[in-house]
Amino acid sequence: MNFRTVALLVAASSRSTVCGFSPAASSSIAAARFGAHNINNFTVRNMSAASSEPRKAGVSSPTDIKEFVSSAGSSLLVVDARHPDASVEPGDAKSLAVAGFPDKDSNFRPNAINLPWSRESNSMEVPEVDKDTPIITHCGGGGRGQKAKDYLESVGFTKVLNGGGPKETECWAEYGDK
């Protein structure tokens, strides 16, 4: 028996349709017909438009991020967990080419600070803000952003989301300029 993998990229918007079906973030479909082929029991999953890989575990949806940013207003803090030294985190060079570090002097990403996640110590510097400050953590794609989120929650921060990073273009569009 031969199997083929079919990936369908679907935006997180409820206005997106696949074969006339408007899926939520993840929806099962019993059957569909593609050309001369019948396909049974497949799942449509929300994936980043920039990647054929699913969003990393823990990365919030673009809708959740949009609502969080809106309710946070000017009190939003964005914590950039990427490392400035590419020899420490070689993968960061790619995301830094797309989106640089916050720079207060030029007002680039004015609500953001860089607090790198350390894989060696499994920790990071803690932001000097109230524990109920709304915070979005991110790295390049969400892995260290999730570790940063978990760490901040473990030390008492109560309003923290993982925003993924520049690789998660739909998410990044909601807070990347903050």
Give the SSE layout.
Blueprint: E1 26-34, E2 37-45, H1 62-72, E3 77-80, H2 92-98, E4 112-114, E5 135-138, H3 143-154, E6 160-162, H4 169-175
Parallel strand pairs: 3-4, 3-5, 5-6
Antiparallel strand pairs: 1-2
Question: Main traits of this protein?
Answer:
178 residues, alpha/beta, two-stranded antiparallel sheet, 4 helices, 6 strands, globular, disordered N terminus
Summarize the structure.
The chain is of the alpha/beta class and 178 residues long. The chain has 4 helices and 6 strands, in the order ββαβαββαβα. The protein starts with 25 loop residues before the first strand and ends with a helix.
What's the pLDDT, averaged over the residues? 77
Number of helices: 4
Main beta-sheet strand count, sense and barrel state: 4 strands, parallel
| Strand segment count | 6
